[in-house]
Every structure is written in structure tokens, then in C-alpha cells.
Design goal:
Butyryl-Coa Dehydrogenase, subunit A, domain 1; Butyryl-CoA Dehydrogenase, subunit A, domain 2; Butyryl-CoA Dehydrogenase, subunit A, domain 3; 3 domains; eight-stranded mixed beta sheet; 12 helices; Acyl-CoA dehydrogenase family protein; acyl-CoA dehydrogenase activity; Acyl-CoA_Oxase/DH_mid-dom_sf
Length: 395
């Protein structure tokens, strides 16, 4: 049952769905943290929890109001993602995919957007941004095939997408700056195959398997360019790519805050480490390191908040679609990935030997934040473009 069919039974208040969603997440928090080992064992978020998240509006956050969506301001949607990431890495990552899905769908052709949301706004969309497929131009559209990695949330998706290199007569079609032309394809989940490949070091509960599309002719309406002029009005839909680094930033910040939460919870148990003369929370060494860690966390939070506010101002002004802004977002995501992984490392080290067990949330937090930092939108190589921008601006 979709949200629009049972909204009267839920606590979402029409006047402020954002606050209501955050309140619903607080209610779900004990269950999410208690079931973390279950997520890892199943290598996916269980269907019943997915439906709970669907019912509070997670999949409609960035869907246009014209389709019954909430069309949150971007900072409001990030606050929801941060709250879930702070509870659990896999659930947080799933919430980010939910937001990204809504943004990518908004960049699709109008007829496809209408089709995706024709039965309501609570549609789970996932996919892979790697151009691992080909789309050969034919008379009836495109002949598409491919195999895409890292399709997080594919186990509960309603629609899935992947990026393809456009070809003609078997050869890549040149795009901007001489690079191959890339287009996205989006189809209902029934048209895809899911390969059971997600055996990973962290973010185990995200179900980030490979997805495969067997060769088929896809109508042109289902193939689109995410970089075209906005197809929907409103600041949220000014661009897609400029938002992506900030979404990875919210994951990093949420994970670091969660690691500090878990370290504090351990300290409040009164735990005393071997050879220590006092409990952890009474140790000046512990207090000193904790103070340093929380300072790093606040710096990371502040940096992300400033970057988000700057992007949102540009979106409101209609000037979000700017390559320099993309570089600025990449700078923040790369720095946050490193800094927040360092915070999780420091929490893990300070907690002592008890956190090496699978039952410890801190070891899971450390693995998850490290795997998240491997993403292309958080890689340290992004600093190359940042350096080029600094040189150009200073010339």
C-alpha cells in the first residue's frame, strides 16, 4: 500500500512533513540500531523496514509536488539523510539513493517522468552512474545492453537505471570535449537481471549488486541526458550533478557523528580498559582525545553546512548549473570523506579492544565509512580539479 493511500493513518502532518519525517525516524531509531547485524547478514535492508521507510515518505522527498511528492528543499532532504546515516551506514546510504533516484528521474523526459510516478510518488529508484553499457542508435530508439556495478538498493527498487555510451555503427558517438556521448537509460525493475555479487567489506546492507540489461530495443523516451536544461521548475531541479558531491558529504558527516555517538555510549557504560587506573570517561587522556575528535567533527559539520547553503543559494538564484560549483562540491566531498574516516578511526582506536568484535557498532561504522570513501565522488583525485580551479582563479 502506497503512502497516499494511508497518509491519514500516519503521523505525517500536511503542514510540516519534514519535521514529521524526522520525528518518525526518531521513533524508528531503536529498531534500526537493534537490527544492524540483520542488515549485514541479509546484505540488504529487510523488506518490512523498506516499507516503513516508504510509509514515512523517504522515496518521495525529492519528487515534484505535481506528482504528489514532497519536493523538499535540498537542505531539508539532507537533514533526513543525515539522521538515518547517523543511526546506521547501510540505512543512511539507502536514504541517499532514494533522494538521488528522485533527482535523476526529474531529469528524464516528461513522458517517462509521468510513467514512473503514474501510480504515486513513493517509487524506489536505483542504478549505477558508471557508463558500463552501450546504447546503439536504431530506428525505433536505442539497442541497449550492459552490466553495471554498485547498484545500491536494487533489491527493493521499482525502477533501475544505468549510464550508457551512445554508439552508431558500433562506434562511440563523440560528445562534448571529444569524450564519448553518454546517456542514461531507466526501465522498470522487471526488465533487469540482478547478479548476486555484493560481498563487500562495508555497507553490507545496501545490496549493491551488479545489474544486467540483456540486449533489447529501448524506446527513445526511456533514454535521456541528465545535463539538459531543467525539465521541471523549482530550485531543486536546476541541475543533478552539482548535488551529488554534497550527498556524499552528508554520508561522511552522518557517519562521523554516529561514530562519536557510539564512542560516548561505550564510555557511559563505565568501561575501564586493561591496565587503566580509572574508567574511560574519567581518564584525562580519553577526555583530551574526545575533545579533539569532537572539534574535528564540528569542523566537518560546519564545512558541509556552508557548502550546502552556498549551493542552495545558487539554486534559488537559478545559477546552480556551473562547472566551478561542481569542483567546489567535489573539494568538500573529498575533504569530508578523509576527515570523517579519520574521526571514525580515532573513535575506534580510543575505544580499546572491545570494539574488534562483530557485535560492536564501532567496527561496523569504521568499515562502512571507509567503503563510502572509496566512491568516485569522494576520491582524493578530485583535488586535481580543485587545484586547477585555484590556479585559474588566482591568475
Amino acid at each position: 500500500m502506497r503512502l497516499q493511500e494511508k497518509i491519514s493513518d500516519h503521523s505525517i502532518a500536511p503542514r510540516d512533513p519534514h519535521k514529521s519525517m524526522l520525528a518518525a525516524i526518531r521513533e524508528l531509531a531503536p529498531e534500526i540500531t537493534a537490527r544492524a547485524a540483520e542488515f549485514e547478514a541479509a546484505r540488504r535492508i529487510p523488506p518490512d523496514l523498506v516499507e516503513r521507510l516508504r510509509s514515512i515518505g523517504l522515496f518521495r522527498m525529492f519528487v515534484a509536488q505535481s506528482q504528489g511528492g514532497l519536493e523538499f528543499d535540498f537542505p531539508a532532504g539532507l537533514e533526513v539523510m543525515k539522521a538515518l546515516t547517523r543511526l546506521d551506514g547501510s540505512v543512511g546510504w539507502t536514504s541517499i539513493v532514494a533522494g538521488v533516484g528522485g533527482l535523476f528521474a526529474a531529469a528524464s523526459r516528461p513522458e517517462l517522468y509521468q510513467r514512473i510516478y503514474r501510480d504515486g510518488p513513493d517509487v524506489a529508484i536505483c542504478g549505477s552512474s558508471q557508463p558500463a553499457g552501450t546504447a546503439e542508435r536504431v530506428a525505433d530508439g536505442y539497442r541497449v545492453k550492459g552490466r553495471w556495478p554498485f547498484a545500491s538498493s536494487c533489491m527493493h527498487a521499482d525502477w533501475m537505471g544505468g549510464f550508457c555510451i551512445v554508439t552508431e555503427n558500433g562506434k562511440p558517438v563523440p560528445g562534448p570535449q571529444g569524450k564519448p556521448l553518454v546517456r542514461a537509460v531507466m526501465l522498470p525493475v522487471r526488465d533487469w537481471d540482478i547478479e548476486d555479487t555484493w560481498h563487500a567489506a562495508g555497507l553490507k546492507g545496501t545490496g549493491s549488486h551488479h545489474i544486467t540489461l540483456r540486449e533489447r530495443v529501448v524506446p527513445e523516451a526511456y533514454v535521456f541526458d541528465i545535463d539538459v536544461a531543467p525539465r521541471l521548475s523549482g530550485p531543486l531541479y536546476q541541475a543533478v550533478r552539482q548535488w551529488l558531491p554534497l550527498l556524499h558529504g552528508v554520508f561522511s558527516v552522518g557517519m562521523a557523528a554516529g561514530a562519536v555517538d557510539e564512542l560516548l555510549a561505550l564510555a557511559h557504560t563505565g568501561r575501564q580498559q586493561l591496565y587503566a587506573t580509572v574508567p574511560m570517561r574519567e581518564s584525562e587522556i580519553f577526555q583530551y582525545e574526545l575533545g579533539r575528535i569532537t572539534a574535528d567533527l564540528r569542523a566537518a559539520q560546519a564545512f558541509h553546512e556552508v557548502q550546502v547553503a552556498g549551493h542552495w543559494r545558487r539554486a534559488l538564484a537559478g545559477t546552480l548549473k556551473d562547472e566551478d560549483l561542481m569542483v567546489e562540491g567535489s573539494r568538500s566531498s573529498a575533504w569530508l570523506a578523509t576527515t570523517c574516516a579519520g574521526i571514525a578511526d580515532a573513535c575506534f582506536a580510543l575505544a580499546g579492544s572491545s570494539v574488534v568484535y562483530d557485535s560492536s557498532p564501532l567496527q561496523r561504522r569504521l568499515r562502512d565509512v571507509r567503503v563510502g570513501a572509496q566512491h568516485a565522488h569522494a576520491q582524493q583525485r578530485l583535488y586535481v580539479d580543485v587545484g586547477k580551479l585555484a590556479l585559474r582563479r588566482s591568475a
